[in-house]
Task: inverse folding
């Protein structure tokens, strides 16, 4: 019997509902593959603010450090929207990423042939898309100092707000290396780096480092693209992309946009990897969806697929990941759909119902 | 006879080709409506670097200041890509916007019923879209100081690059006011402000100022949205938007993305307005397309439509703007298309051919 110790952070909003289903799926897969799970649950985000006055309590962080991997659902909600930037639920998530040095956020975007109708894009453009966004996750304007809101000197009471977009060479290099190595494992071996090097110094340094590294990967077909153009090209012709490398802020925007290729944010998992010193974090790319929280309506598949990324990248169990992915495929083939991916003639399920179908298929 | 003095900046790449056609259209419309044009042409961007060693020569700027409006095509190209940030073609454009205090960049996005096929989005989602992005244009990380690339103290030769995202209250207020006033003139009276207030102080100040102003416009249906969500919603269901207000960097990304709703960047004009002290700038939102420059393949319609915005906003000639827009509609109805909007069964035209068709229709 293999044993794995996983930190489980359900977070806020729909988080507890989708995490519940995900743990059930892992437990069932565990029985089939002779794996015993030790799930260490802890609060993060708004739940942690309410319980402990801190969006990332020290107990939660140390529990994460002791685990082999961190499985996280989502954080945030209107209840905590008026707190200052360091006290918000989101600050807990950002500190977790930073403390675990999870600098490379992998966001695979692929289409499910059963869900082509769910995409707002024309089916012939999205069928067969298989791209992955590598988003830098512990730098950029998310973390740069100085930041704040201050009165302008001699501004007669006027205030200004500022953040710092910042990258050092070593931060660029380490995430670029992840992206190039990843590109080498993929059939097309393409890498497109996205920046705004026609305006920003941060992007100029980014472009020059990544281009330099490209010379050491002659088998990778490398290109650079401006972020405004990339935002357009992702919609215009997504099949042109294989691996897309970008910074934290641009990656946030582009990956949510790219989710529309698969039809729903509710289908997209992510993996946030460091250099191996600390456990990696696995989380869906969607948010906490306060509007449907507690209603058993959410799509748990992005969270379940995040668990399959954990099985692949942290636990070296591709067999279990394959089995769970197959179960999801079967359930989609049978026509079961949550509301976000519903289309005519399909069978609408709530969160726990679709979970049960996946368990049956397993 | 009315006389109008216009600064004409053809810029780089496809700029001269599309500007040529645009001026022909204005001349023909002028004959019909008894308007005499004084076109003052000057170099900007790469052309100005080559001619005068400066992407915005003082002569160009002072000529712009003496005009009633500035009509600009596009700047940039690989030839000047290795220059430093302050010497690039783009720096000339950015300085022009700043010097003329053109802080409110209006980017209308609408669909042409004749071009629904050209959009990568499903036709039923884009038919009838009529939204306008109000992008702040003289602040944000585009202009914030400090900025640069420096060696890290004690960094053993490692460098870091930084830019400053920055907004003062008065900068937010003046562009927000343009957006609210604009929303008041539109049938749906909706305004959605886009930011990243769950992470950035700059966005928190933005959100708090814009929300405060919303209270003075009770007839406007106001909402705020995070930029990652907005990037998704623009593709998911664009009809939900009417006026979209956002900062310089987010606006750059979202407006290029939104161009796919109309099917091509080649159809989208923009107007950059200040408080009236200086002339406004009218320019297509597309770039200089170096790959097709000099080949007479470009779509001049975004540039021509920018001229119609000039007729409306700066010259108070809605009659002429209507006539030109009608001519474009007729040409599209007749099935003439440039390459970027070509679809099966239509007649492919090059840049000057489509220009001739528009002149005939006028
Ligand atoms: C919740 C928020 C802080 C977060 C981010 O911006 O990184 C989210 O949007 C994401 O993409 O994971
Ligand atoms: C050319 C570039 C500097 C410019 C910008 O980023 O503003 C362009 O992309 C635009 O949108 O007008």
Result:
């Amino acid at each position: 019997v293999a044993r794995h110790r996983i930190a489980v952070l359900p977070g806020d909003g729909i988080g507890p509902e989708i995490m519940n289903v995900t743990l059930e799926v892992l437990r069932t897969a565990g029985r089939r593959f002779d794996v015993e799970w030790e799930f260490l649950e802890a609060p993060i985000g708004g739940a942690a603010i309410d319980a402990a006055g801190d969006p990332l309590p020290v107990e939660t962080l140390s529990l994460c450090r002791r685990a082999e991997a961190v499985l996280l659902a989502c954080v945030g909600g209107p209840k905590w929207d008026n707190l200052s930037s360091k006290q918000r639920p989101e600050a807990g998530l950002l500190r977790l990423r930073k403390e675990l040095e999870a600098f490379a956020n992998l966001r695979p975007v692929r289409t499910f042939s059963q869900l082509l109708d769910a995409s707002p894009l024309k089916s012939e453009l999205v069928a067969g898309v298989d791209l992955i966004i590598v988003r830098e996750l512990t730098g950029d304007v998310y973390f740069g100092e100085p930041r704040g809101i201050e009165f302008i000197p001699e501004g007669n009471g006027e205030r200004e707000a500022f953040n710092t977009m910042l990258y050092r060479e070593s931060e660029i290099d380490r995430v670029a290396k992840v992206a190039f190595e990843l590109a080498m494992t993929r059939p097309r071996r393409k890498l497109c780096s996205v920046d705004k090097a026609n305006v920003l110094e941060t992007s100029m340094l980014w472009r020059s480092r990544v281009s330099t590294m490209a010379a050491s990967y002659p088998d990778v077909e490398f290109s650079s693209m401006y972020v405004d153009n990339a935002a357009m090209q992702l919609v215009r012709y997504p099949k042109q992309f294989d691996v897309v490398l970008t910074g934290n802020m641009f990656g946030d925007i582009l990956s949510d946009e790219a989710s529309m290729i698969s039809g729903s944010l509710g289908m997209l998992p992510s993996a946030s990897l460091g250099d191996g010193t600390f456990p990696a974090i696995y989380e869906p790319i969607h948010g906490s969806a306060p509007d449907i929280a507690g209603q058993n309506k959410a799509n748990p598949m992005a969270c379940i697929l995040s668990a399959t990324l954990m099985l692949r990248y942290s636990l070296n169990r591709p067999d279990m990941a394959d089995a769970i992915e197959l179960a999801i495929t079967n359930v989609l083939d049978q026509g079961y759909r949550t509301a976000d991916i519903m289309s005519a003639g399909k069978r609408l399920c709530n969160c726990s119902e679709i979970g049960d179908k996946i368990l049956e298929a397993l």
Remarks:
- The two ends of chain A are 19 Å apart (CA to CA).
- Chain A touches chain B through 62 residues (CB under 8 Å).
- The mean pLDDT of chain A is 96.
- The pocket of 3-isopropylmalic acid (ligand 1) is lined by residues A 76, 90, 93-94, 252, 285, 287; B 198-199, 228 (CB under 6 Å).
